[in-house]
Amino acid sequence: MKKLFSTDSGNITALIARIALGVVVFPHGAQKLIGWFGGYGFTGTMGFLTGNGLPWIIALLVILIEFFGALMLIFGIGTRIAAVGIIVNFLGVVITSHANNGFFMNWYMQPNKGEGLEYFILLFGLAIISLIAGGGKASIDALISKNSLNK
User: Fold this and answer.
1) In whole angstroms, what is the distance from residue 61 CA to residue 15 CA?
2) Distance CA 126, CA 18 (A)
């Protein structure tokens, strides 16, 4: 359990990776859970996801991971847990919706063309850094890790 929260409290790279990832994922979660940023909120998102064939438990996990996982990353608490959740969540997104769309995003909004993989490659890179390094500098994980070392 100690290893889960252990991190180098001076690691600025871990800080940058987790903050960047959390800030990018949070709006997606906020759309899904509370309807911010033009989203449909919890009820609308559950209806959409389950209406497209996802079991309700998976739909619920998608919403919770994107909202609370992003907050966990921003504050650096349970960084590795949040990173695994983000990786699994977005692997599902890629496999079900983006794998056949090529590399590039649909910058010109071409009809009947989906978004490619470039965003997800960056997302996975940041999540893997967070998984390996933990919370780093200015994280609650660093405080937990420091306190567990002093016992």
Assistant:
1) 25
2) 7
Whether residue 118 contacts residue 105, with contact meaning beta carbons closer than 8 Å, is answered with yes
Residues 6 or more apart whose Cβ sits within 8 Å of residue 16? none
Whose structure tokens read 């996975």?
A: 124
Q: Name the burial class of residue 150, with classes exposed (0-12), middle (13-18) and buried (19+) by CB atoms within 10 angstroms of its CB.
A: exposed
Share of the chain above pLDDT 70, in %: 97
Residue spans of the domains in the chain: they are 2-23+62-149
φ/ψ bin of 8: left (φ > 0), alpha (ψ from -120 to 50), beta (otherwise)? beta
pTM to 2 decimal places: 0.91
Q: What angle (nearest 5°) sits at the alpha carbon of residue 29, between those of residues 139 and 134? A: 25
